[in-house]
UniProtKB/TrEMBL annotation:
<keyword id="KW-0472">Membrane</keyword>
<keyword id="KW-0677">Repeat</keyword>
<dbReference type="Pfam" id="PF00153">
    <property type="entry name" value="Mito_carr"/>
</dbReference>
<dbReference type="InterPro" id="IPR018108">
    <property type="entry name" value="MCP_transmembrane"/>
</dbReference>
<feature type="repeat" description="Solcar">
    <location>
        <begin position="183"/>
        <end position="271"/>
    </location>
</feature>
<feature type="repeat" description="Solcar">
    <location>
        <begin position="113"/>
        <end position="181"/>
    </location>
</feature>
<comment type="similarity">
    <text>Belongs to the mitochondrial carrier (TC 2.A.29) family.</text>
</comment>
<keyword id="KW-1133">Transmembrane helix</keyword>
<dbReference type="InterPro" id="IPR023395">
    <property type="entry name" value="MCP_dom_sf"/>
</dbReference>
<dbReference type="InterPro" id="IPR050391">
    <property type="entry name" value="Mito_Metabolite_Transporter"/>
</dbReference>
<dbReference type="GO" id="GO:0016020">
    <property type="term" value="C:membrane"/>
</dbReference>
<keyword id="KW-0813">Transport</keyword>
<feature type="repeat" description="Solcar">
    <location>
        <begin position="17"/>
        <end position="106"/>
    </location>
</feature>
<keyword id="KW-0812">Transmembrane</keyword>
<protein>
    <recommendedName>
        <fullName>Mitochondrial uncoupling protein 3</fullName>
    </recommendedName>
</protein>
Length: 277
């Protein structure tokens, strides 16, 4: 009986260590690649609700966006929204990684799964993690988008992380923190299944970004009534290719992010005396 209790305590301790290590590794990876994520968000919002023939719509690309941010706001401008991004990963990555391990072991005692089972378990763990972390993701998107207001000489909507949370809850209710959660969860499911991640998830990611960025006016009016409405309006006004805005930085970030995360995670596990993942 004592041995059984001791075993449970040891398991909980190891799980706690894994959660801490995945959080630390995610912080390293997110900070290292955040400028690419910021560039992606700006591209996804570029030309929103402007038809292809609009004279006010200027073509752009990842390099122009990043260079414009540095020119107008300095290098620090590339890190607008980093704090909620780190908060997001304190929830998202531990639930995704540790949750995957636990689900995998629950389905198969020895951890051996077929490719389809691994994809399904990965998708489920990613979807759950994204639902929990969605409020921080929403704040991140809005703070990243606020940089466009600064470029125009306007005041950003939020002064910082806590100000953003407070204002969103005050003006849009607690449910406002989960605006855009459906496409967010759908994207996480696809990405964590490993199914051609960038190509399949990019349209959903564009819809997610636009849904999260829109804040209701004082009269309660919004541009998009739902994820489907956002999808239809985007394609109708901007064309089908608008669904792949931000494709290049999304794709370009995958490799570096995974590299920084897994190298630091394996190193942290070695230091902590845990076996390799």
């Amino acid at each position: 009986m004592k041995a059984n209790v001791h075993g449970h305590k040891e398991t909980r301790t190891r799980t706690g260590i894994k959660i801490l290590l995945t959080s630390l590794s995610a912080m390293v990876a997110e900070t290292s690649t955040f400028p690419i994520d910021l560039t992606k968000t700006r591209l996804q919002l570029h030309g929103e609700s402007q038809p292809l023939s609009s004279s006010t719509r200027r073509p752009t690309n990842s390099f122009r966006v990043a260079a414009g941010i540095v020119r107008d706001q300095g290098v620090s401008g590339l890190y607008k929204g980093l704090s909620p991004a780190i908060i997001r990963h304190l929830f998202y990555t531990p639930i995704r990684i540790v949750g995957y391990e636990n689900l995998r072991n629950l389905v198969s005692a020895d951890g051996s799964l077929s490719l389809s089972s691994k994809a399904l378990v990965g998708g489920i763990s990613g979807a759950i993690a994204q639902f929990v972390a969605s409020p921080a993701d929403l704040v991140k998107v809005r703070m990243q988008a606020d940089g466009r207001l600064i470029n125009k000489g306007l005041q950003p909507r939020y002064k910082g992380l806590f100000d953003a949370f407070n204002k969103i809850v005050a003006m849009e209710g607690l449910g406002g923190l989960w605006k855009g959660v459906l496409p967010n969860v759908q994207r996480a499911f696809l990405v964590n299944m490993g199914l051609s991640a960038t190509m399949l998830s990019c349209p959903v990611d564009v819809v997610k970004t636009r849904m999260m960025n829109q804040a209701a006016s004082k009269e309660g009016n919004v541009l998009y009534k739902s994820s489907y409405d956002c999808l239809v309006k985007t394609v109708k006004i901007e064309g089908l290719t608008a669904l792949w805005k931000g494709f290049f930085p999304t794709w370009a970030r995958l490799g570096p992010w995974q590299f920084f995360f897994w190298v630091s995670y394996e190193k942290f596990r070695q230091i902590s005396g845990l076996s390799s993942f």
